[in-house]
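**User:** Here is a favour to ask of a fellow structure person. Please take any protein you like and set down a full record of it. No explanation is needed for now; the record alone will do.

**Assistant:**
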Amino acid sequence: MEVIIQPTAADAGLLAARMIAALVRSKPTAVLGLATGGSPVSLYRELIRMHLEEDLDFSQVTTFNLDEYLGLGPAHPASYFNFMWTHLFRYINVRPERVHLPDGLASDIPACCADYEAAIRNAGGIDLQLLGIGSDGHIGFNEPVSSFSSRTRIKTLTPRTRADNAPFFGPGEEIPQHVITMGIGTIMEAREVILLGFGASKADALAAAIEGPVAQLVPASILQFHPKTHVLMDEAAAQKLQRAEYYRHVFANKPPWQRV
């Protein structure tokens, strides 16, 4: 696990964007696992700039999003389908048929989940999975005590997660209780992972995930066992880390061939 502390969330987002761009340039047919929420917005903004100004080509890229709210259709302002097209897809040359998100209106949820897993396998697996981290340490919508071997499935959100996501909904609007999410087992099969965590509200979760024991109560802690995970955070999110100075030292002294 590589821990990278940057001065600001924007700086961390720019670095993460460069990592993704390096993959897409080296492998134009890359399969990207994408995330929603506030953390990746600056990253997506930079990918758009690279596409428009540096000819970063997404025409052969395939994408799979982590999750979607059950009961929300693509046109709903809080749906993750809408989020992705608003913040990224509409501005780059990704092909709509290569974009995959769980179906929030699926009538047969188990079949929908099985089909999503099959689509990932048929695409050759995910080359790079982008993640955020919840204030309780969840990744995707894999809430605490989720199985480390779980696959794409329905999950019930905790009151804490629903409260954290309330700002994305209108005043008085009911926040869905259920979602479809990639499982932790699915996430761990990605060949590379980037985890973003910004702000003081994520400091405890990041410290537990990076330096605490691997435990189902902190789903992100399983990434300690992933062979190629990069955790990018700002200074506010790093304040609870015991080894922060060492992480800064490692990043500052990386050999040139490891830099992006």
